[in-house]
């Protein structure tokens, strides 16, 4: 644990601080988002951008119940990356769980704050329902074209994932944000440290939906990619990660990457 970063001065002062790590303009807390989200003060964040567990990777509950390394990776057991939690729910349970944390996230988001949620084709309809149930205004879907995928004869390639996005109520057109693309084309990252890690440049593009200098929350930090991308683009960022393995991996990644940038400058 490090000294509590300034990015965490938005927490309830009576909250018993969990294990955490951070540096200049970033922090990651080790714990369950459903518990920690409720401890932030209202109107604390300018954007919510996250890649939550999809609870997908199968056409029936038996295949969904497999470990995340089995569902999302072809690595051998010896080289497999650590598994993560909250990915074995049936669709209805997952939708209610998603709506629950999205409702907590909306309470701590500023009026007009954007929300961006990564998801696959199986859970896309459920995600749009959960977003609206939680009170957000649904504004559309952007596409992440992963360029490559496993070919299947006689079928369309499953080479895309999606970003369901919206806002906390009205979203003024005069915000200091340019026109972002609706399709992002980046291959999966090489040498991943998380089973479902997103490309860093993709996340550097996506975080720009937030107004300059804002504070971004990622309730499912994973490899820390969103937090790292946000800091590199000039934002403050707070992440939450429940997995022991990925809390360690993400914080080490952030410290190494940002210290390297400081040394280069």
From TrEMBL:
One of its GO terms (biological process) is DNA restriction-modification system. Its EC number is 2.1.1.-. Keywords: Methyltransferase, Restriction system, Transferase. Residues 51-72 are annotated as: Disordered. Residues 57-72 have a biased composition (Polar residues). The keyword DNA damage does not apply. Coiled coil: none annotated. SUPFAM superfamilies: S-adenosyl-L-methionine-dependent methyltransferases. One of its GO terms (cellular component) is cytoplasm. Pfam families: N6_N4_Mtase (PF01555). GO terms for molecular function: DNA binding; N-methyltransferase activity; site-specific DNA-methyltransferase (adenine-specific) activity. It is an enzyme of class 2 (transferase). Residues 46-249 form the DNA methylase N-4/N-6 domain. Belongs to the N(4)/N(6)-methyltransferase family. This is Methyltransferase. The lineage of its organism: Bacteria, Bacillati, Bacillota, Clostridia, Eubacteriales.
